[in-house]
Write a structure and sequence with these properties.
3 copies of one chain form a homotrimer.
Chain A lengths: L3 H5 L4 E6 L8 H11 L4 E4 L4 H4 L9 H12 L3 E5 L7 H6 L26 H18 L5 E5 L11 H15 L2 H8 L26 H29 L5 E2 L1 E2 L8 H6 L5 E3 L9 H16 L3 E5 L18 H11 L2 E6 L25 H20 L2 E3 L3 E4 L2 H7 L11 H14 L4 E4 L10 E4 L7 H12 L3 E4 L19 H7 L1 E7 L7 E4 L2 E4 L3 E5 L3 E5 L9 E6 L2 E4 L2 E2 L1 H14 L13 E6 L2 E6 L5 E11 L4 E9 L4 E5 L7 E3 L2
């Protein structure tokens, strides 16, 4: 099986999406000159080239791409070659209207933007396969080719009749019989029983709340329908180039794809990360996505897209202050990236993304943006080879599951304020601020290698997952769980007692009387801290009360419980309190921070034998590091401490590499 | 004519919706055991059982319902049997797409939730009639049957072509000729004149403001179309069981049904009330709905649904603190309810309402919720027989009219901040806080029995209604009216002078120069109080100025007028001021509070010979009651005062019953 | 060519829309009596009379209009006669559904309001032409006829298939070849290349951001499609009455019509202005619209609609305090209006606009509104002849362009907070507060007559326009430009360097590194002032830094630049700072305020030999005017100063008329 090493060849890749078809061919040599100046080693070609490659049904125009591939090869720049199937040409919708998606309200999604295809459409799939076939056949052996990039940010949903037929097939495969489906969805409620497979449709606009089993299965189906599109194209390119790795770039922590299942079907896991430059915790966000992607990849991963400056899809699009791009690029490398890439090389002058930054912005080579790009490129070229391919195992696992997320976001839920990714982020931030590096895992993964397992909030847990967690604690692991966990089974059926009995026993909870979600401006006081968003009316059995509620309707009842190595947090402590609580739990599990006593906003991460330091704060700081070390960016000796300005980065080479480090894990 | 007594048989009913088809049949005996423990006397069966009873077109499956009816009968639990026509099975929409509603934008409302039927659809009506016929024939003589429950919370609207045809028929019947319709709607404006009946459609998505006559008639039509659905089913069950009462449960103060007209066609008036547990005036809301329903019923009524804990359809769904369910249940009885029922008996584990509480919650029989249910059931079983069937006439009538509400909520109105039910509620609250119990009436009802008539805001008043009000005052009654009243006639045509001349004369108003609605954060000062939402530029004729505006553009002009026994309030005084004003008007009309000098948040109500006291406040209070009394809940003597904790209730038996009390009115 | 003089005949017209078909014919004589009392000289007839004139396809009913025209003629009231084509009768949509517009989502826009026609529909156009033809033939020679009023507030947009065909024709004419279109729109991006004209559709609902070239051309097309509707009807009436002027009333500063192009095709430019009575800068808004319309008309213009009191389409509709109507009416005359008209004469009692005020309100002739109308009418009758036809040239031009506005408002833009008309308004207000009267011009107009040219913000500038601006400064003019100007070319292609090189040279800017839009609550400090909304990271070449940023990421970089007579303002200074800055620039250009040292809120304007003073503030003020003057409203001598109460107006006759004044320019 090919792997990321086959693409990186010992380097940390640097580059980005390259869309030269937008420019006159005379521009290409200048592009190459500037790429070399910026030490670009990788470009992604063809992402949105369908209309150029197939200007009308069945036609082919490869000449321009031949010339580009050759140009890249001649200049030693590797190519990540995309199948252009994310954006069908106008002729597709015009000639085959049934390929156009329909939304929940039955409205047609027309061409004129991108991604206007129904993933269940056989016509779309046939055209996509034919072009992929020809691309793979033509460029499979090209010396510039390093990796395949299937489609782009798969994200279409569709509610059309074609989708209905496909959904029924998927349901037949999942449930076997209509009785089983009726049972799984609980259609006895509200007279929703299906008497025939033909009666089943996607969950469309309805009078009132929709059936949660139906909508949950539709989320699962949509992820799988997109995955079928991916695997069909992947199988074609693998047939032609069994030794070239394949990826498809994820949107960061996006709800529409089951990232665990998808990652298993990729040789290389890649992701697009766009931290908001104005987010005071943008560094944590970047870290979290890196941690998740590293865990999906089980090793080094690819940052396929980030922005050198502003994006164009926020309400207000802020540029990156000087240094932020470099800081976040190195941060991704520290958390395991073996490629630092951008959308896109040269900023477009036309089209919907002309205000999305490029490595080469409208200001051109004299612009501040390009100057910073050149600095990053030079540093990566010099230091990348020491990092590429190295992997450091995690001691902590944060559990995350798309299925639970989907079940969480339904009509008729307890609180519309409960935002799954926000809860996940709050818990990750608490660990990040303590420099406790964490990986991610799915609740049914083998957890035995972790010292600490953290469950921010998993509303839905399968029996397998529950048994896995119970076994993990029984076998000596430490587990800490947030509120509203283990409530529903695989069918989104509420478990008896409102929380699975095995989990209640694990945490020492007797009865879950009521869930008490909190309002937007509401807080609740607990022993020594304040909390938000959630609270629960619990009756303890064997658990020990670590902290009680001291205000509100639940005053006097337990807020945080501990039952041996199992902890339960029935509310969302404010950030500092959650940080302190998780630090205490980690300590009880024998997990230590990377460095202790760091100034606020300073992040320390180890990768292989290197210690990375990042200053996310606004002020200059002095970091006590001990020593002696070699600081690699400045190529200087460090002993005892290092100074970091705003957006400052230091990379210290440790005298001895830690035991957890290994090339290619 | 059958009445509620035929169902209650001298008790206050206790129970709720029971949907056992969601559970394995083994659960039923446990349900019965727990129902008996909770002293449940009534269950509502079959509300959403269409797909179970008629699994495919024309099929019938009654066996399970036979067994349930027998089980209830055997255990002495009465059954309110529903026609299941609120939620057609999926096969209906799948085989007869024309039964699916379309919204104003032409979007189909699909199955997958509930209520996906066009009320004008002959196909839907035919299926509904056939099943109702079979249900009535089969269970008409069953010993468990106590009452028929037609459909559930009628609330569908539809804008489809079938609706258009039906709407035209309704318009022909109302207006006779097209000329009359054009005149009534004022179609000379904006070139909207209809040349043929076929040109008339429901008021669909348009370029700009729609014709108010058109939209008002469509609201009237929609209420009537639903009423036709109701009466068709009612007539069938009445044919089979002329001695069994019939009801259909209202949503509380819902805009879509003309509640006065509907109530006249029901043997029993029932309603679903869901006060927000977080609403500091939830007690007032509960009281208001009780007052309205008692007035619609002209005597005892049925609380068909309330929640034992949280609901699942608010943004954030809060449980009920201990005691609140009991408080509000007794409050409904005090205001005339002869049945205290819940949606639903056993909380669902699946489906869209699995987080809507049940009498038996996810926590089961050990849960706090069920413990409170058992207490309420025991108390009602002991004390209910003394209350059931008693009725105490009201001295005050609050006028409310759906027609005026509909006319109020149109495109192009004076202020979108004017929320009809909120104004109604503000005025009811002012009376409630003074312990001045009020009933409700329609402006054309016989008002002669009331000492005081209160009109919070009736934008539209027919000539009949205006004459009725004028006659009422002329004959010695006291009338107080809020702003923007008597502006439009039955066709929503603005009356000359902007307010009907008879009303101007009644209130002593000369000219209405302009209406001055207030902005969101705007208040206006008046002599001795502050007001919000509204103000009016009036010129007085014979009226006496009770209070003037003292700030803003209207400073110096009259805010509150009095012309003998007729008062006019041209703004919305803040709560305490409106309370004081209405107390003063009530005193002038010779109406006294139930009790005076009550602590804040304490409500006192009389029903029959009993005095009910409720503590809605957060603190313990001592209520001076005089005495001696017998306090029935605690079965103890009370003399002079009674203590009430938070959510506390006391029921005092008076030495002599008042003259206004009578069984069955 | 006929002109406004042909309609005014030396007076300032006074009157409004008159829709007598809403009233019984007996009302008409009363209307005439009250019109004469109010000195009404002009009524607009027939605006929404299509269904009355053509009750069914091809039928004609002119009798009522004959009688009205004669009645007006007999009473000396002139008629502005409208083609009633803004609101097709219900029969049109019912018989010809293809005339109904569809919105971006494909939803049909039904009849039941007004303007339900697709401007591209040949069927609609044919009916409109036939009726216009008959109207013009019948009333062309009528003695009451003064002016033609084509349609009303053209504002429909449509995305239907008929529109698609028409759009393709328009694109063929604009671009010639499909290659040129693909180049213009940049369809190489996101695989949007069109292979056939048939593939092009209006920009409908899409998955993500739409192509800006496509949507920009569609805005241009829609304006042109409406213009075709206008010119078709105009040509018909001109054929019949070559000496009667033609207009079509604009909505104020509306985005849908290219006002410059339209005005060129009208004999008389007319506009509808509805300042919000609660807007503290309503006076400035009224002034701005007057300035714009005067510039479009290149002389006197018609205020076709304003409201005597409240409108009915705001969320909360406030009346006008006493005096405000008179103040704003005179303000329009001062800024060049030769007609002061209202929607509408008599307030409707039915229909969607029954709460839109009329000159004769619901309160009738005793109402405050009508009393104020009579005062205005009398004053205009007395003083109007001295003003009618006079025109005073502007020294300042504010540049405004619909094309740039359209390009500004696209998917994927830098900041959704950037609201083009708000920026325009902020700059106009700065001039208005300094009593620096300004006209408006398009960036490619001949600017040589102006001393100062002001560019608040023109994102898109054609090469012609840029050359025009550069030449203007080179030839001695003073130019001041706001941020984000000259970024895009005619195809919305970003110019190299992010700002056109000629403009960078003009302003002395070297490199535009990044645009830094500001957040909602964000401000940035500069030398001596605070600014909002926007900032830019600029590198200066030859420019002089007038003010630097002193806070935020750009601290130390230039905020305001000056390069000789060219100024560049890279942010939006707060109002007082922008006022001071523009006053400084104006002074450098040799432009003086009308009067100096005026109290806050007092506006001074010259028209012909008259000096108008307006008190927009809440308090009484004394204005130092010098003198001696004759004050015309009070017909009194003024020497040195004049007192103005709230909403006060004074009109001073100057001893000698200024040189810039001329009748009929």
């Amino acid at each position: 099986m090919p792997s990321l090493d086959d693409a990186t060849r010992g380097r940390v890749l640097f580059g980005g999406d390259y869309n030269p078809e937008q420019w006159p061919e005379e521009t290409w040599p200048e592009d190459v000159r500037l790429m070399k100046e910026a030490r670009v080693t990788s470009v992604t070609l063809g992402v949105f080239s369908w209309a150029r490659l197939e200007p009308r049904p069945g036609a082919r125009d490869f000449g321009w791409l031949d010339r580009l591939m050759d140009l890249m090869a001649a200049n030693g720049i590797g190519v990540v070659l995309a199948t252009p199937t994310a954006s069908p040409p106008p002729w597709m919708g015009s000639r085959h209207p049934e390929t156009l998606p329909r939304d929940e309200d039955g409205r047609i999604v027309w061409w004129g933007s991108r991604q206007q295809f129904c993933p269940s459409s056989p016509v779309y799939r046939a055209y996509a396969a034919a072009l992929t076939q020809d691309l793979a056949a033509r460029y499979g052996g090209h010396p510039a080719l390093r990796m395949w990039h299937i489609n782009n940010e798969y994200c279409t949903h569709c509610w059309c009749d074609e989708t209905a037929r496909h959904f029924r097939d998927w349901l037949r495969a999942r449930h076997g019989t209509l009785d089983a489906l009726n049972e799984s969805w609980g259609t006895a409620f509200w007279s929703q029983r299906y008497d025939s497979w033909d009666e089943i449709i996607p969950p469309r606009r309805a009078q009132y709340l929709r059936n949660p089993g139906h909508t949950l299965d539709f989320r699962r189906f949509t992820s799988d329908a997109l995955l079928e599109c991916y695997t069909a194209e992947r199988d074609i390119v693998v047939w032609h180039t069994p030794d070239t790795p394949v990826t498809s770039n994820f949107m960061p922590l996006w709800s529409g794809q089951d990232g665990w299942g998808w990652a298993e079907r990729e040789d290389v896991v890649s992701v697009d990360i766009y931290p908001d430059p104005r987010d005071p915790y943008g560094g944590q966000y970047n870290a979290m996505l890196g941690d998740l992607t590293r865990s999906q990849a089980r090793g080094p991963w690819v940052l396929m897209e980030q922005a050198a400056g502003p994006v164009n899809w926020r309400g207000v699009n802020h540029p990156k202050p000087a240094g932020l791009n470099r800081l976040q690029s190195w941060q991704s490398v520290a958390r395991g990236a073996d490629a630092v890439c951008y959308f896109q090389w040269r900023q477009s002058r036309q089209g919907a993304e002309k205000f999305h930054s490029g490595m080469l912005s409208h200001a051109g080579e004299q612009g501040r943006t390009f100057r910073e790009i050149k600095r990053i490129g030079a540093e990566l070229a010099r230091l990348g080879p020491e990092m590429a391919g190295t992997h450091t195992a995690d001691e902590i696992a944060l559990l995350h599951d798309w299925d639970s997320w989907w079940a969480d976001q339904q009509d008729g839920r307890l609180s519309s304020r409960l935002d799954y990714p926000e809860v996940l982020r709050a818990w990750h931030r608490a660990l990040w601020e303590s420099n406790l590096r964490t990986g991610f895992a799915r609740p049914d993964h083998d957890l035995s290698a972790y010292r600490l397992v953290v469950v921010p909030h998993l509303y839905l847990l399968t029996d397998t997952a529950i048994d896995n967690l119970v076994r993990y604690v029984r076998d000596g692991g430490t587990l800490v769980s947030g509120f509203l966990t283990g409530v529903a089974d695989e069918d989104d059926r509420v478990r008896e007692g409102g929380m699975d009995a095995r989990l209640r026993e694990l945490f020492g909870i007797g009865t879950v009387h009521e869930w008490w979600p909190l309002d937007a401006d509401e807080t609740v006081e607990c022993d020594g801290f304040r909390a938000t968003l959630w609270s629960e009316e619990l009756e303890v059995s064997t658990g020990e009360t670590v902290a009680s509620y001291t205000s509100g309707e639940l005053a006097g009842l337990p807020a945080v419980l501990r039952n041996g190595r199992a902890w339960y947090v029935s509310t969302l402590p404010e950030p500092e309190a959650l940080r302190a609580l998780l630090a205490r739990v980690a300590e009880s599990a024998g997990v230590r921070p990377v460095l202790e006593g760091l100034p606020d906003g300073v992040e320390a991460v180890r990768r292989g034998g290197l210690l990375f330091l990042f200053n996310h704060g606004a002020k200059d700081v002095t970091v006590a590091t001990g020593g002696p070390y070699r600081e690699l960016l400045g190529d200087r000796a460090v002993d005892g401490s290092v100074e970091l300005g705003r957006h400052g980065v230091a990379i210290l080479r440790e005298p001895n590499h830690s035991a957890t480090e290994s090339p290619n894990h």
